[in-house]
Amino acid sequence: MYSHGSESLIKQARDIQEAELKKFYRRLAKLLQGKELGHEAMDSLQRLHLILSATKFTRTADLSSLCAQLLRSLESRQSDGPTHSLMQTLPILNTIITHSPECLTEDHLTLLSKKIVDWLRYASITQGGGASSGGFFTGPRSRQPVPTAELDGTVSGDFFTVLCVGQGFTDDQWMNVYSFSMLRHWLLTYHSVPSGSTIADADDRSEVDGSVVSMVSATSSSSRLLPPKERLREKAFQYCLRLIEQSDRKALKRTDTELQKACLVEAVCILDCVCVEDTSLVYRTFPCVKALFGRLSSDLTFARVLLPIAQFYLNHGEMATVDCESVWKLVFGRFPAELFNSPFLAHELLRFLRLNLESLQLRVPEYTRSFPNLLKFLAWDSPAVVDDFVDLLPSLVTAETAVELLHTMLDLPCLSATLLLQLRSTCSPISEPGGRGLLSLDAFRSASLRGLFLYLLRTEAGSGDTIDRLSTLHELLAEAADWPRVVQCAQTVPVLLHIFFSAVQLHTHCGTHVHFEGLFHCPLTRPFPIPLSLALSLYRVFSCHLLRLCKLRPSLVVDQSHELLEFAGTTANVYSKAEIYTHVVWALGEYLSVSSDSRCSVRLITSCFEALEAVLFEITSSAPPPGAACPVPRVITTLMSALAKLASRSHDLIPRVSLFLSKLRTVTRGGSVAWCTDEEDLVAIVMRGEELWSLLKTPGVAQSVLTPPPHVTTPQWHRDTNLSMPLQLRTLTSLTHTHEMNSVQM
After folding, report:
1. Which residues, 6+ apart, have CB-to-CB distance to 333 below 8 Å?
2. Cβ distance 657 to 702 under 8 Å?
3. How many CB atoms lie within 10 A of CB 274?
4. 279, 385, 547, 627: least surrounded by Cβ within 10 Å?
5. Quick one: what percent of the chain has pLDDT higher than 90?
6. Torsion of CA 678, 680, 685, 690, to 10 degrees
7. Euclidean distance between CA atoms 623 and 621, whole angstroms
């Protein structure tokens, strides 16, 4: 968090009004016209930097003239003026480029690129301030230059970089650090501007700086003859290779080890950037990047470095014909499996996936197969990463993965509990507040039950199946249902289900054959023990998408008839899952017909009829079970309509449903009944029954009304040339057009 003083400054920067900002800007422009930049100019530059950086809204001050003035101040050699002014100028210049890249001209780009090359490649290699030779009469003349050192304490044998250390730094060494910090951003900005003059810079320094010859760049002395843009890339390339070489040294301080990692991340990103701009550098870069991956891949503390390496492989591996399998095994295998509880890695890896989604889908088959592993990030910290998975989930839905992905999402609360058990099983035992050890932890450690938990912890799709033992798994993890992390995870499942089914519908609409076998089995059974409100949310989402899927693919009802009938034939579902039960019954009555699927047989229609008939008879002939409310009227009317529809397709069933409907009318004449206490609801149910009974008296009419042909349900009369409506529409259009023309002429 910021200190109170820092927060106050940031608030002032955000609250500054446009008029005040323009006045401040004009004063700064006058200060920058002087030969030297004094303290007031430096303070004003810092303030402008804060103003531009402290708000997410784009400011409307014209920065082109300021940019030109700042760049002109860079034209003089560092020895001609105070370098501290350059240290203030470069950050504000970088901020201006971020906000207004259009204010840069080609001359500006060339100038700044040359200066960055100088600062990166030709900084001093001696420590700032020098070292004393000792003695009482020590003075400035007695101080001897001391070379900079590497992080392992040895003397630097090459040009200065951010990984060189000393007792102090010279001004040009600070500019080296500043230049490296903005190098990647500058390369991306420069890349978007066309190449300029190809004339070499005659004033560029030699490749040999003093008596030290650059080992990295000794083979590229011809780079002086390159155009400014290409020369900047070459120097950036050399600088990054030097950093990678320095990172292999054993740092004496722990903080320097972290600095090495940070510099490696930036170096690999810059190498990726220059290779994107100039593909000829790919072949020079890959041996170094490949060796770096081999050196770091076994140590997951370098995960933040390995992700940029994976980006490099993704962007350039195909061109260099390099085998990337080991990279993807690490990224999609070990990273989620072992570092799922690292917030930083979760953010970085999911960001990597979102930025490269299209490339991963096309070129990395391991991506879609790794969803059981990737979902561990969601199971562990749902609030932090749910937005990422909202974007990623549709890309994980394929014809082969749809069903397993659905089951995995429904098992996310189980996975969340299992991850907690996995971490704690190697540490102190989990216990409840009262001190009693948890049965779930004992089960996790049990060899006989280990397979269930290993299935949840699998790293890729298609490895094992526990659907038949879900009830056992739920019993083992029942005590974890109220753990905060598990509850948070369960709350995200309805959102994910909505996205999942929307993606499945898109595949179905586009003609992709999705394997639906088992798709309805798990959602229709009781999910992991969670609060009733969350369970109802799951059922609502599933109910909504069930109807949409059946409409897109009516044959789905025949495919899944066993699961649907098993659910619809269970009377208890009428009371506990009324909404989804209503939708399932409606789908059976609507789509279980030959017109929807030629495989629909009389036998299947009869078995469905008998299952629904038994449920309807049971709920209308007795009171609700203890503790349950009366059946929802919509459930009863939907059951009656479904029976009538099925009977209209198999006329042998008409007497049975007609008999039930006539008895229903007789029973309700006596007043209220035990299964419906509301008089208005009872009247509506009886009226619906009489309508259906009247229809079934004439089977031909009943079939036309209850199962209308497609041309009736989806009319296109405005296109049918055999009807008069198209002619009427054309006539009205012509008359309207003529009337408009006459109005214009008048």
Report:
1. 370, 373, 459, 460
2. no
3. 23
4. 627
5. 40
6. 140
7. 7
